[in-house]
Amino acid sequence: MIRASSIALAAAITLSSTLVSPPALAQDNVAARIAAYRERVERLEDQVAIENLQAMYGYYFDKGLWTQVADLFARGGTFEYGQRGVYEGRERIARALLLFGPEGLGPARLNNHMQLQNVVAVAPDGRTGTGRWQGMVMLSEPGANAVWGVGIYENTYVKEGNTWKIASLHFYPTGFTDYDKGWAHSQLPMDGPSALFPPDRPPSEVYRALPSNYIPPFSFRHPVTGEEIIVTQPADDIVGRQ
Amino acid sequence: MIHLSKWSAALIASALFAAAPVHAQTAERQIDELVLRVERLEGTRAIKKLQRAFGYYVDRGLWGEAADLFTDNGTIEIGMDGVYVGRERIAEYLRRLHGGQEGLIYGQLNEWVTLQPAIAMGADARSATARWRDLGMLGQYKDHAEWRDGIYENAYERGADGIWRISALHLFVNFVVPYEKGWARLREGEGLARSEASQAFPPDRGSSSDYAAFPAREMPPFQAPHPVTGKRVQER
Question: What is the ipTM of this complex?
Answer without folding.
Answer: 0.89
